C-alpha cells in the first residue's frame, strides 16, 4: 500500500516529537553549561518514476552539550521514512517484461547516536555508539576518532575505527540449501521474532580511516583521507530475486559473503581573494574485492553574498565499473549474457554506471555574544536550505531489456542550528 | 641500492619542504583558513544526508562512519 507522508505528519510522529521535546526540555536544565547546541534538520529524497517512484523523508535532531571546555556530550536522532515501490525481480533482455513486477515499500528506520568527546588544547578523542532499526534490519556500531594538531595548528592527523554489528532478516532456509533454489523474502512479517520461517543473519563491518589535513598558505589547505572497510555476512538484498534460468527460474540474489573496500580521497580548498570566494576540489578513487573500481570528481564554490548569507554551488561526476560477477542477464550463454560464476545480482549499484550531480545551498548565520544574545537566548543561529539533483546513467542495467525510468533523484534539505 | 637512496632522499626532501611550508602560516595569518567556508567538515547536516543518498545509489563508499543499513534493502 502506498502511503504519502507530509511534513506535518512526520512532525507528529511520536519519536520525532519526543526528540524535539527532549531537546527543548533539556536546554534550560543545562543553562549553566558553557555551550548547548541544538540542530534540527529535515530532508526529502524523491525519485520520480511511472512505476517505481520512491520518496524518503529524513528528519533529524541533535543536542550537543559542552559542560566544560574539555568535554562534549551529544545525542542524535534521525529517521528514514520510506514510501514507494521497487522491482522485486531482476531479469535481463532474454526474459519477458512480464517477469518484472513492482512491490510496494513502506518502512521506517530509526537511528539514535550517543557520543562523548574529550578535547585538549591540540588533541581530541571522540567515541560514539549508534543503534538503528527497521522492520527487516537492525544495526549497532561503535566508533572511535582520535585527532591531533601540531606545527602551529597547520597540520592535523586523524585516525578512526568503526565496528558495526548488523542483523538482516531472511527466509529461514537450511544452510545447506543450494543458493540457486533459495527464494526471496516476500515480506518483513515475522522478522526478528521466533517465527519458524524467518532467520536473522549477521553482517559485520569494520572501517579504518586515516586523515591528514594541512594548511600550506594563508589561502590554501588540503586534506588526504584513506578508508579501508571489511564487510562480512549476508551482503545481498533478501527481497530481490534474479532470473537465473532460461525457463524463468528465480533465485534470491546471491553475493559473496566478504567484501574488502578501499578509498583514497584528496581534497583542496583555496580562497580566491579577488573574487572573495572559496573554491573546493575533491578527487576520490575507490576499489574493492568485488572488482568495483570508481572515480569521483567534485568541484564547489562558496561565497558570502551578504555578511550573514553564504551561497554554495557544486558539481560532481562519478564513474564506476561493474562487479566481477555482474551480468545484465544470467540466463544466456557466454560471452554476451553468460553467467558470471557462482554469484548473481540484481543490484544496479553493482553494474557499470555514471552519475552526475548539481546542487546548491544557502546558509544564513547570525552571531551573538554572551552579553548580547540573539533573541535574548542564542549565542549563534543558522538556517540553511539545499537542493541537489542527481542523474544516474546505467550503462548496462535493464529490466527485461527496458531501461529503468527512475534514474533522476532530487534531494531537498532544510536545517537550523542554535547555540545557547 | 642507489635507486633506493635516491627515493629516500626525494622522500626526505618532500617531507622537509612540506614541514617548512607548514610553519609559514602563522597564527595571525589564519583568518581566511579559519573561515567556515574553508573547513572540510561541513557545518550543515544536509551534506551528511546527501552522502547517505549517494552511498545508497552507488557501489562505492568511503569517508564516513558506519551507521548500518549495509544491505541496501530499501
Which percent range fits the helix content of chain A?
under 10%
Which architecture name of chain A does CATH use? Beta Barrel
User: Strand content of the residues of chain A, in percent?
Assistant: over 45%
Major sheet description of chain A: 16 strands, antiparallel, barrel
Integer count of domains of chain A: 1
Q: Give start-end ranges of low-pLDDT stretches of chain A.
A: 1-12, 15-32
Uncertain runs of chain B are 64-74
Predict the CATH topology of chain A.
Answer: Porin
What is the rounded Rg of chain A? 24 Å
The gross shape of chain B turns out to be flat
Q: Please provide the ordered H/E string of secondary-structure elements of chain B.
A: HH
Note the total helix count of chain A. 2
Q: How many separate helices of chain B?
A: 2
Summarize model confidence as the mean pLDDT of chain A: 89
Tertiary shape of chain A: globular
Number of strands of chain B: 0
Percentage of β-strand residues of chain B: under 5%
Strand order of the largest sheet of chain A: 1-2-3-5-6-7-8-9-10-13-14-15-16-17-18-19
Give a structural overview.
The complex is a heterodimer of chains A (420) and B (74). With 420 residues, chain A is mainly beta. In chain A, the strands form 2 sheets. In chain A, strands 1-2-3-5-6-7-8-9-10-13-14-15-16-17-18-19 form a 16-stranded antiparallel barrel. In chain A, strands 4-11-12 form a 3-stranded mixed β-sheet, with no helix packed on it. Residues 1-12 and 15-32 of chain A have low confidence and may be disordered. Helix content of chain A is 5%, strand content 58%. Chain B has 74 residues and is an all-alpha fold. Chain B has helices at residues 2-22, 46-57. Residues 64-74 of chain B have low confidence and may be disordered. The chains are: A mainly beta (420), B mainly alpha (74).
Summarize the helices and strands and which ones pair or pack.
The complex is a heterodimer of chains A (420) and B (74).
Chain A: H1 7-12, H2 14-29, E1 35-47, E2 54-68, E3 71-87, E4 89-90, E5 102-119, E6 123-134, E7 137-150, E8 155-171, E9 198-217, E10 220-233, E11 241-243, E12 250-252, E13 258-272, E14 277-288, E15 293-306, E16 309-320, E17 353-367, E18 380-394, E19 408-419
Parallel strand pairs in A: 4-11
Antiparallel strand pairs in A: 1-2, 1-19, 2-3, 3-5, 5-6, 6-7, 7-8, 8-9, 9-10, 10-13, 11-12, 13-14, 14-15, 15-16, 16-17, 17-18, 18-19
Chain B: H1 2-22, H2 46-57
Amino acid at each position: 500500500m502506498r502511503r504519502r507522508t507530509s511534513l506535518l505528519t512526520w512532525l507528529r510522529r511520536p519519536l520525532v516529537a519526543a526528540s524535539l521535546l527532549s531537546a527543548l526540555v533539556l536546554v534550560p536544565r543545562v543553562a549553566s553549561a558553557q555551550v548547548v547546541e541544538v540542530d534540527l534538520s529535515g530532508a526529502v529524497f524523491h525519485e520520480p518514476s511511472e512505476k517505481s517512484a520512491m520518496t524518503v523523508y529524513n528528519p533529524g535532531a541533535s543536542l550537543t552539550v559542552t559542560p566544560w571546555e574539555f568535554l562534549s556530550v551529544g545525542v542524535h536522532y534521525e529517521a528514514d521514512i520510506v514510501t514507494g515501490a521497487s522491482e522485486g525481480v531482476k531479469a535481463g533482455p532474454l526474459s519477458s517484461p512480464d517477469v518484472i513486477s513492482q512491490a510496494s515499500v513502506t518502512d521506517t528506520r530509526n537511528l539514535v547516536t550517543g557520543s562523548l568527546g574529550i578535547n585538549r588544547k591540540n588533541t581530541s578523542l571522540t567515541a560514539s555508539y549508534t543503534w538503528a532499526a527497521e522492520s527487516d534490519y537492525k544495526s549497532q556500531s561503535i566508533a572511535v576518532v582520535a585527532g591531533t594538531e601540531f606545527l602551529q595548528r597547520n597540520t592535523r592527523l586523524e585516525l578512526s575505527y568503526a565496528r558495526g554489528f548488523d542483523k538482516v532478516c531472511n527466509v529461514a532456509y537450511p544452510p545447506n540449501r543450494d543458493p540457486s533454489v533459495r527464494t526471496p523474502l516476500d515480506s518483513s512479517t515475522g522478522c526478528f521474532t521466533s517465527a519458524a520461517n524467518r532467520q536473522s543473519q549477521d553482517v559485520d563491518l569494520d572501517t579504518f580511516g586515516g586523515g591528514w589535513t594541512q594548511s600550506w598558505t594563508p589561502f590554501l589547505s588540503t586534506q588526504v583521507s584513506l578508508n579501508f572497510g571489511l564487510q562480512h555476512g549476508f551482503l545481498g538484498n533478501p527481497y530481490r530475486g534474479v532470473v537465473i534460468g532460461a525457463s524463468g527460474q528465480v533465485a534470491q540474489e546471491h553475493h559473496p559473503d566478504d567484501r574488502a573496500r578501499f578509498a583514497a580521497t584528496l581534497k583542496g580548498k583555496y580562497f580566491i581573494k579577488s573574487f572573495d570566494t572559496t573554491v573546493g576540489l575533491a578527487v576520490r578513487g575507490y576499489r574493492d574485492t568485488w572488482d568495483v573500481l570508481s572515480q569521483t570528481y567534485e568541484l564547489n564554490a562558496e561565497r558570502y553574498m551578504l555578511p550573514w548569507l553564504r551561497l554554495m554551488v557544486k558539481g560532481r561526476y562519478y564513474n564506476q565499473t561493474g562487479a566481477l560477477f555482474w551480468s545484465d542477464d544470467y540466463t544466456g550463454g557466454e560471452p554476451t549474457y553468460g553467467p558470471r560464476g557462482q554469484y548473481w545480482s540484481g543490484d544496479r549499484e553493482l553494474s557499470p554506471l555514471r552519475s552526475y550531480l548539481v546542487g546548491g545551498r544557502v546558509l544564513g548565520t547570525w552571531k551573538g555574544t554572551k552579553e548580547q544574545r540573539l533573541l535574548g537566548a542564542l549565542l549563534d543561529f543558522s538556517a540553511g536550505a539545499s537542493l541537489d539533483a542527481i542523474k544516474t546513467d546505467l550503462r548496462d542495467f535493464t529490466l527485461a531489456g527496458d531501461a529503468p525510468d527512475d534514474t533522476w533523484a532530487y534531494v531537498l534539505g532544510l536545517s537550523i542550528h542554535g547555540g545557547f | 641500492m642507489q635507486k633506493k637512496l635516491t627515493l629516500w632522499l626525494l622522500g626526505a626532501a618532500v617531507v622537509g619542504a612540506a614541514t617548512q611550508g607548514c610553519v609559514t602560516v602563522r597564527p595571525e595569518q589564519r583568518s581566511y583558513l579559519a573561515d567556515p567556508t574553508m573547513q572540510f567538515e561541513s557545518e550543515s547536516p544536509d551534506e551528511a544526508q546527501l552522502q547517505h543518498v549517494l552511498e545508497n545509489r552507488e557501489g562505492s563508499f568511503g569517508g564516513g562512519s558506519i551507521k548500518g543499513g549495509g544491505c541496501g534493502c530499501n
